[in-house]
Amino acid sequence: MNIRYLLMVAVWLSSVSLSRAGAPYFSNYDQAARQEPVRGVVAGKDGTPIPGATVRSLSTGRVTTTNDRGEFTLQAAQGEKLVISYIGFSQQEVTVSGSSLRITLTEGSSQLGEVVVVGYGSQTKSDVTGALTQLKADNIKQGVNISVDNMLQGKVSGVRIAQSSGEPGAGVDVFIRGVGSIRSGSTPLFVVDGVPLSNDNVSAGGPNFGLGSSEAKNPLNFLNTSDIETITILKDASAAAIYGARGSNGVVLITTKRGKKGDPTLTYDMYVGTSSVIKKLDVLPASEYRQAITDPAYDHGSSTDWQDVIYRNGFIQNHNLSFAKSTNTGNYLASISRLDQDGIVEKSSFKRTTARLNAEESFFDDKRLTIKMNLTASNIDETGIPNGNTAGSDGQLIIHALMANPTRSVYDDNGEYTNFNMNAHYNPAYLLSIYDDKTNTFRVLGNIEAKLRILPGLYYRFNYGIDKSTSERNSTIYPNVTDRTPNGAYVQNNLQSLTTLLDHYLTYNLAIRKHQVEVLGGFSYQQFKFSGTAFGMQNIANQGTGVPPEYNPGYSGIPTTPSGYAQENELQSFFGRVNYNYDNRYLLTASLRADGSTRFGEDNKYGYFPSFALGWTLSREQFLKDVTAIRDLKLRASWGQTGNQEVPNKITQASYSLTPSAGYYLYDDLALVNGVIVNRTANPGLKWELVEQYNVGLDFDLWDSKLYGSLEYYNKTTKDPILNIPSEPLSPTTTVWKNVDARIVNKGFEFMLGSQLINTKNLTWSVDVNGATLSNTIKDLPVSELYSGSISGPGLSGVNANIYKSGYEAGSFYMLKHMGYDKDGKDIFEDKTGDGVINADDRQIFEGAIPNFNFGINSQLRYRKFDLSVAFIGQTGGYLVNNTALDLNINSLASDRNVLKKYYDAGASTSNAVQLSSLYLEKSDFLRMSNLRLGYTFSFNQVPWLQSFNIYVSAQNLFTITGYSGYDPLVNTTKTVDGNQSLGVDYTTYPAAKTFLLGATIKF
After folding, report:
1. What is the DSSP string of 901-960?
2. TonB-dependent receptor plug domain location, by residue (predicted)?
């Protein structure tokens, strides 16, 4: 081998190395020697770095792309011309002068030029091949939103938000592209600044004193919504598959604010306001009630609107102070906030204090090492009311207020609360007075991330995160004159949780001429620990006697047996992804994640979740080059699989217990020895629920953004669902946890259409509308049916409203069909069996709770210094079981209680039996103005230290157009049966609120 040949090989290898740094190989070695490395930064007008921008030399053809900090390195000679381009920005030409450049691109209006957050990184929207939507803080921070999930309402196609309750801080159900599981819920995975959160409760639930048990609060309440920069929703499997076993219900990525380029900023924003019940139910007033009753003993001589007794105007105030700064090597942001919200029901409240610190700094030569830290701490104090979702017809505060006789008074002649002297019905004001429920939750979420540039384009990242919370809930019912725990009781529930995250991953970026490749590979480990304890006292001292039991539980009473539990599970994952871009025209994304979970047995410890997606940017093709109407046009298609591990711990293992019922006498009848019973049959073969999804999408920007948006078709199928079904003969238990061959299919069409109708210096107006259709079907269920949606009411114990059955949508309704009333006001039901007797066999399946169309409409108008925004949300095609109306049926008139006016006006007979039927099945269609905001921004040109002052007024839930007779058509009370999720049941839910705010934002 001669020396010349070796020299040619060396030159070729060096040229490939230079190509990696941004230069393609070339033949003139002397010319290469004259080149010098030129480093630069590409940013927008506000100083925000632009990753993925293309930097090309006009003379040599060398090309490179900027990294996620907007930085690039390119071999170039002095005086050489470079062209920098990026979709959504105007192309710019610069001349090399020196070894360092800073290029500022002028932003265009293209929607495809935005930088969006994806799993373990970021991309330009033009490079995205999956179905995702990113929301910016300015577009979603409207009205009172205690938790981040409420901010998504009406903003993203295919995402539906339903309140489990209107109580401040209450849980929220988030459905992304339908209902994909029978048992495991539909909650998506939330990731905050790179830390995936557990969907388990972080606050303690409440005990049942005969008033129903209370659900734990929303685990996302700890985040200060003013700290949020962007929210990105990953909807299809291609976008979510990088999160593998936890991505089946979609993924929501939340990033918080950081310091930006420019002068340091100090921002104070606040609002104050008042809330009231969104509507009152139309029960009989005292005057009509007197006409309706036949027994004069039921006229107690007063006139009381009991809804007015328990509802109030709740005061709200929120204050947030933050300061931020960015330097040449890093940035930081610190904030502190306080939110106080009085609920619209007396005594209920939510108070939160949060503090956040985000910091980033770079070290060593050319910012080789970057370290980021995110830390947030929150303290939440909540006061609850006696309104548990598991109560029967005689247990909830709100149902007592609705059924209370309007001729009764709140107080008697002695100034004491009026004693109704009735079983299963009590003075609601009295219930509030004897009940005390306080919860304190302290939570800390933090992570530290280090990024090291090993070689040009090759980065190693390390992420360590913790999520720790402690919660204490003190619940007391004092001795009282009802039959609900009349001797009083106190219970303290404690809950602790700790989640630890450890990520290691490498990213490698390669740009050669028109080819751009990004490779990601990594390892993740997450550990989840939960523990809880409970203790209490019975027969406690009277209210006002001694020290309240929450401060001195041993003061009086009889101790109850303490209880506790602890659980731990782990998730170990390996993941990889490849993004390929050819000439910004042809795009490919492929990913694979392997998850191992301790929730599953040895036979199927690991699950594997692949995805594949293609993109074609048609607007860059020659055949569309001269079509001036098309600014951007991209076609996408994807396929992928994700998993679901949200099942109870240890269900793959057998469970045993000692019990006297299985015991025996060891020595004649002298001593009973506890026997062993099997509680759960082992199934080491249990495996993940699998969700397979297809998606086809089109992104477009036409006529200078006069029309832009996206269209999507998706088909999402859940396979191998995990159910607790009847076991085979000779099994030690009657049921067993198994994967079944059933499928749950969700499919539909989504769209987002927007327009910059006016875009001038003094006037801008943009409107967007989003909507989604949904068809849900259960197929091949191996059992005849499953039930859920337990119904509360007299004589309705064990009655369920939801049915899961092959050929029908998840959570369809199962009940008698009400045909009207006969001439005597008696109920008429359809006799399905034709035997002349109406019984359970005559029940029928009705359309379910899942709306087949959801939509949102958003408008942003700015005229000079005025800004006006309006938002509407709505849905059609769904139904609700109005369990509240079922408890306010006509026969209440015969028992000293009130009824809904519509049943009396219909001429129904008071002797009608209480039965679940389609009489209480109502459409949940509605159109709601969810937010209206008018603001004005003052400018102070003569005051250099004051940047801006914006003052605004806002109205939330201003009006709702609906035929639903309950408080709110957008509700979903938790009424599960045997772990099967319930859908579309409304039982005396804490109502939604109408809110008016006055707010201001001041920037220094």
Report:
1. HHHHHTT--TT-----BGGGEEE--EEEEEEEEEEEEE--TT-TT--EEEEEEEEEEEEE
2. 125-251
3-state class of 337 per DSSP? strand
* Structure token digits, residue 337: 């906030």
Say if strands 879-882 and 985-986 run parallel, antiparallel, or are unpaired.
parallel
One of 3.30.428.10, 3.80.30.20, 3.30.300.160, 2.60.40.1120 is the CATH number of 36-104, namely: 2.60.40.1120
- Residue given tokens 């090399």 in the structure block: 96
Q: How many residues does the chain have?
A: 1004
Angstrom CA distances, 541 to 434, 478, 554, 585, stand at: 12, 7, 11, 76
**Widest Cα–Cα separation across the chain:** 119
- Pairing between strand 844-846 and 812-815? antiparallel
Residue type, 40: G
Encoded tokens for 961: 């157009």
Can you give the pLDDT at residue 58? 76
Query: Closest Cα to residue 135, out of 223, 233, 37, 68?
Result: 233
What mean pLDDT is predicted for residues 631-656?
85
Q: Which of 530, 428, 441 is nearest to 480 (CA)?
A: 428
Partner residues linked to 254 by β-bridges = 192, 231
User: CB within 8 A of 619, min separation 6: which ones?
Assistant: 630, 631, 632, 633, 634
Strands 36-43 vs 100-104: parallel, antiparallel or unpaired: parallel
Report helix, strand or coil for 10. Answer: helix
pTM attached to this predicted model: 0.86
Q: Which of 563, 560, 509, 498 is nearest to 534 (CA)?
A: 563
Give bridge partners of residue 495 from the DSSP assignment: 471, 532
Which DSSP symbol is given to 126? G
DSSP state of 540: P
Q: What span, in angstroms and rounded, lies between the C-alpha atoms of 955 and 953?
A: 7
Which residues share a beta bridge with 326?
A: 331
Mean pLDDT, rounded, of the chain: 86
In angstroms, how far is the first alpha carbon of the chain from the final one? 71
Backbone angles phi, psi at 162, to 5 degrees: -130, 130
Q: Six-digit token pair at 461? A: 């990242």
Q: Choose among 221, 167, 144, 164: nearest CA to 397.
A: 167
Partnered with residue 726 across adjacent β-strands are 735
Kindly list the domain boundaries of the chain, sorted by start residue: 36-104, 115-651+686-1003
Beta strands at 586-597 and 606-617: parallel, antiparallel or unpaired: antiparallel
Strand partners, 492: 474, 535
The CA distances from residue 615 to 320, 380, 590, 636, 637, in Å, are 42, 45, 12, 4, 7
Distance CA 45, CA 149 (A): 31
In order of 31, 56, 57, 58, the CA distances from 513 in angstroms are 18, 9, 10, 12
CATH architecture of 115-651+686-1003: Beta Barrel (2.40)
Q: Work out whether the CA dihedral 509, 510, 516, 522 comes out positive or negative.
A: negative
Residue 677 has pLDDT above 50, yes or no: yes
| Core vs surface per residue 115-135: b (16+ CB within 10 A) or e | bbbbbbbbbbbbbbbbbbbbb
| pLDDT tens-digit map of 466-509 | 999 999 999 999 999 988 889 999 999 999 999 999 999 999 98
3-class secondary structure, 884: helix
Separation CA 253–CA 344 (nearest Å): 32
